[in-house]
Amino acid sequence: MHLLKTLCSIHAPSGNETALKEYIINYINLNIQNFKVKPTIIKDGIQDCLILKFGNPKTAIFAHLDSIGFTVRYGKELIKIGGPKTYDGIELVGKDSNGDIETELYNYEDEKGDKHTEYIFDREIDRATELTFKPNWREDDNFVQCCYMDNRLGVWNALEVAKTLENGIICFSTYEEVGGGSVGFLGKYIYEKWGVIQALISDITWVTNGVKHGEGVAISRRDSGLPRRTYVDRIIQLAEESGVKYQIEVESAGGSDGNQLQKSPYPFDWCFIGAPEDNVHSPDEKVHKEDIRNMVLLYKFLMKHL
Fold it and tell me: What crossing angle do the helices spanning 149-162 and 289-305 adopt, rounded to 10°?
């Protein structure tokens, strides 16, 4: 899983996804001869997003590029990007005008009782520098574990599907971890240009009391967003026909690019389908390899039959 390991190591917090976008473009150009259908690549005028168009598309895959992290404020204070874990000792990396940074965070309470998160380093880091979790890849027969499985695994899944995709669209979006912002114009583009109104959300969900490691890819009936039931019914019927192992998720919290599609002025149907992970939004996100395999298999089947 060398590609996934590499994706997890690329610095691309919300608002600064350029490096990951450029890596994906380079990866596609190097491997495009192995794709079943050569995609059209749209990269201009859509910020740090990417659109890959294959054949005559009916369905789009959305996968967000960005990760959670921290922004350096004043002094040594850190501000969250999205919702990262903040326990003491988490190792962080970044780069400012004075060079590469490897530091760690700690929490303290001031005399007023206010809580703060800061970094420990031998110099002051430039204001507005972004710090992300230091990658620590771990792999055994059953699991892969690292920071940023959410959502580099969703990106990896989309790239795996791209190799054999004949008809479809892949949208690599940005800003998801801070509430979205790019899905609206991506949806507008693919609706107005190709009439696409069906979407699959290639993202990572949570291990919960109802969603377990090794029980298959999760098809979400709902989270904080509520997809149209007839569309999800159709997906579940196709999942049954595929023979791929899956489990049904029902949650009241969490969100994805699907929420932004639902809020757009276009008639998109969408469904979140992803492998479940443990240790969410921490440096130790953990996913079962069997769930990853089933995620890829189900996406390939759905993109042929939806």
Answer: 50
> How crowded is residue 179: how many other Cβ atoms within 10 Å of its Cβ?
11
Cα–Cα nearest to 15, from 223, 244, 263, 181: 181
Q: Quick one: 50 and 192 in the same domain?
A: yes
Beta strand 99-109 with 115-120: parallel, antiparallel or unpaired? Answer: antiparallel
Of 273, 262, 202, 206, whose CA–CA distance to 235 is shortest? 273
Q: Which of 296, 304, 278, 255 is nearest to 144 (CA)?
A: 278
Structural domain containing residue 274: 2-67+138-305
CATH number of the structural domain spanning residue 165? 3.40.630.10
Of the pLDDT bands very low, low, confident and very high (cuts 50, 70, 90), residue 40 is very high
pLDDT in tens, 92-114: 999 999 999 999 999 999 889 99
Residues 162-211 pLDDT 10s = 999 999 999 999 999 999 989 999 999 999 999 999 999 999 999 999 99
